Amino acid sequence: MESEFLATATALLAASIRMSTPLTLAGIGETYSEKSGILNIGLEGIMLSGAFFSFITAHYTQSLLLGVAGGCLGGIFIAMIHGYLSIRMGIDQTISGLALNFLSLGLTSFFFLMAFGKTTELPECPVVAPLPIPFLKDIPVIGPALFSQDLFVYGMLIVVIVSYVVLHKMEWGVNILAIGEHPKAAAAAGIDVPKTRYFAALLNGLCGGLAGSYLPLALLGFFMENVTSGKGYIALVVVILGRRHPVGVFLAAILVGAAEALQFRLQTMGTGIPSQVFNMFPYVITVLVLFVSIGKNRTPAALGEPYHQE
Amino acid sequence: MRLLREFGSFAVVLAATCLVATVLVIAVGSDITRAFNSFFGGIFGSFYSITEVLVRATPLILAGLGVAVAFQARFFNIGAEGQLYMGAVAATWIGLYLPPLPIALHLALGLVCGFLLGGLWALIPGFLKGQFQIPEVINTIMFNYIAINLVGILVRTVMSNPESPLPMSARLPDNLHLPLLADPTRLHGGLVIALGCAVLVYFFLYKTTWGFELRAVGVNPRACTCAGISVKKNIVVSSLVSGGLAGLAGSSEILGIHQRLMEGISPDFGYVAIIVALLGKNHPLGVVAAALGIAALQMGANTMQRRAGVPASISLIIMGLLVVLILGRRYFINPTPGEAA
User: pTM of the prediction?
Assistant: First the structure.
């Protein structure tokens, strides 16, 4: 009985990690952006573009590596448009992000239909195989959950660690923090505000594109219209829940991923609880977290404010 | 001169958008004339197609007005989608579970409750912003998802139809329907309500002290505090009115079209409404015009997909591009950023 429980818990944890991987990646990308003062609602569009271009590249070249590269470029493409609009032109970040979501959804659906037509069978692409790490995979519970996964998951773990070091242990992380809090003061201290923000946008696109690639190249093996279906918005949730800290984002994403994994399991068991109860869970928690954090506002002071260089 | 440049740049934006659309149509390998004809045929082709554009425009006008009112007070209401669903919930609830009332009263009650519940749904993020400066963008998005999931739960549990396994509520009584304006088309009284609301919103914003204060808060909250205008109160009021109008869009969809609550009654009306408000420059008249334009664009694109094989998602591309170009053009007219925001 006990070992059965352990096996279920392990399987659930492994599923949670898989579900959380795109959320963590996209969330960390957004963390860079938000810390530098740019709120990018276009994360959904970034992920969708990443998913589409990774799929198209992998489908035609049958190469996973090129697929991932294509996905990253697809994400960077959308993120840099948002960067240009909000950094260079000073356009409202929320609206341009929203417009880019529409644009990305439109473009990917259009080109997907154009390339494959309306078919009943979805075109496929290669999928990464799990790559268990010797020795580490034999650790009970965490072994199967963390170290018997695919390369994306390992990449995600590396991104978490590297981002923690970059944002919290390196000078560049402090610079990013400074321009998100007080761009004018940061500029006076010799930091190139637009350049740093562009770089944050680039990282946002890179991580978001990678997150998007995970869907066709690891989870699904195919692409369809609006394949992200709101995952980009959930990643925004994860950023808030994780308080814009890489490790926090990782943990928040696992929490959301666990809710998702649990919901699948309960659905197959047929408990009669509508799956929406679990879907709603992360959003309600976020609102509560925002509510509880009243007074200790940790939002970057200049978030969403355009900066004009003098 | 400035006006000329304004119009000139607008013409350039339109021309660029048309150019991109044409390129896309050619790229997909469709015949240009055929695509063109089916696009405009889908809008003006028949009396029926015109009424369908108006049916589509109705919720866009209402939700667009809502977003515009909020934007005027600089409350970024991204939550119209959720508020619309809550309005739909309220209208269905009133329609299904209240003892029989005179039809006109019953309809009015459904609409009013749709307004109230939608307003309440926006009031929470509005209050949190007004009172505690909690950013509303993320909060309103959260409330969208909560509302949509709530609808999913309701139609599967307390409001489910006992006679059907499908996730939807029972059908409202047949006579509980907004009057049809041009039977046998689907054009319903919601359009009149929407246009009436546009007039009301115009008077509210531009002819009353409340409206003046609300707009003043949007322009310069700091000066308002100095002048004794309560920023908090006006943000809360704007969120209430904004959510209410979006909720009204939901109840008018239920009482005029669907007659029952189900998932997916809104094909992103609430998000498109943001684009409508933006294109309409947050002015009620502009909102009506923009809503009609976007509705026509969507209906035309649908017909173009059916008859000329051009994916209807071209309308999303056009919408996204229009917004980016229109916002961007201000930068080119007057390249000191800041004016552009």
Answer: 0.91
